[in-house]
């Protein structure tokens, strides 16, 4: 079954993405609520999305080759039934949760993922502000257990594409809350707005792709607060709309930090693989430090959502 | 999907959305006021309240005097970017002054300044450098 193929659902979804963006924009303009758009920000996001598809075409063989090598050695083959695809989808979403969590807690992976958070807007174009450098992170290894368990690589990539498409519609302020049962199980616009918030309360929360249950299980869930609107973007926002800079700025900064003269091996590793905001001299703030400083200024927030640790 | 169809969709889609946004007036920069500059600064550096704010005449940038140095807030589309200034490279520009930073996420900014503003800003920026 090595020649199994599935459609490239992300490419097929491109017309839907364009149409949905136009609908959201129309809604915002006509209703004068539900989000914001700005031309250069949106164009940058769309170019990042186009670049992500191009990177997939150019570099996709690296991950696929790795997966096929694993497929060649595993004695397991679960077949292609609908149930197997469904289980694969759920397990791949668990895989996404952890890759995404690494993406925020390990600078090497953050260097790739940061561009997705680099817009100060939150609309459907933000969903398409995707990385060009995902292959460099080597996070493809987190998919290895799925292949070794007997899920065909083509199926794993297919459900990964479905996962990405699901996440498109949650990048909007035009939808408030979904029904309670849905908010309890699924990732929603409300949950994901929190994830994109640079507010101290919302940092490093809600890593889910499709099912929010992973965040509830692993203690990273923070509900959106009616009293605190997410402030979108990065802790230190970037000042460029140049997509090449957006794609590579954190990699360059990482290399500059890790290769600077006069620091030891531990510090170099800290800059490359420590949490974003690590510095050998304490001159920068990690999420932990940002939350601690916030609580020093706002002690009344101690123990509330996002500050319970 | 054939590659040429994908290319047409992507390029056409980006062009249509960009054109529409521009025609809807969504390319406009949101000018600063002293209050919005202060808020923009505190949004980025909540532990460093401004001691003084110097707003440019075009309201696209503000110099922030701090206890520990100088900061800059500038308009970035509909939003703002803020940085504590650490040795920026300041050069004259036909529109005012050009600043380069050792910052890969915000490598440069051009400040549009009137002729009477330039010496004041240049001096303040020199101090920051």
Description:
The complex is a heterodimer of chains A (309) and B (129). Chain A has 309 residues and is mainly alpha-helical. Chain A has helices at 9-12, 14-31, 39-73, 82-105, 107-113, 124-127, 134-137, 144-148, 153-168, 180-185, 189-196, 213-218, 243-258, 265-273, 287-297. Chain A has one domain (1-309). Chain A contains 15 helices and no strands. In chain A, helix 4 crosses helix 9 (153-168), helix 5 (107-113) runs antiparallel to helix 13 (243-258) and helix 13 (243-258) packs antiparallel against helix 14 (265-273). With 129 residues, chain B is of the alpha+beta class. Chain B has 2 domains: 1-28; 34-128. Chain B has helices at residues 3-23, 34-44, 118-128, and strands at 52-55, 61-66, 69-76, 79-84, 89-93, 96-100, 108-112. A 4-stranded antiparallel beta sheet of chain B has the order 1-2-3-4, with helices on both faces. The N and C termini of chain B lie far apart (54 Å). Chains A and B meet through helix 2, helix 3, helix 13 and helix 15 of A and helix 1 and strand 4 of B.
The percentage helix of chain A is 55-70%
Total of helices of chain A: 15
Shape of chain A: globular
Low-confidence stretches of chain A: none
Shape of chain B: elongated
Helix and strand run of chain B? HHEEEEEEEH
Radius of gyration of chain B: 18 Å
- Strand proportion of chain B: 25-35%
SSE string of chain A, helix = H, strand = E? Answer: HHHHHHHHHHHHHHH
Could you tell me the radius of gyration of chain A in angstroms?
20 Å
Give the count of structural domains of chain A: 1
The percentage of residues in β strands of chain A lies in under 5%
Mean pLDDT of chain B: 94
Count the strands of chain A? Answer: 0
With helices defined by DSSP (H or I, 4 residues minimum), what is the helix count of chain B? 3
Helix content of chain B: 25-40%
Oligomeric status:
heterodimer
Structural class of chain A: mainly alpha
Major sheet attributes of chain A: none
Major sheet details of chain B: 4 strands, antiparallel
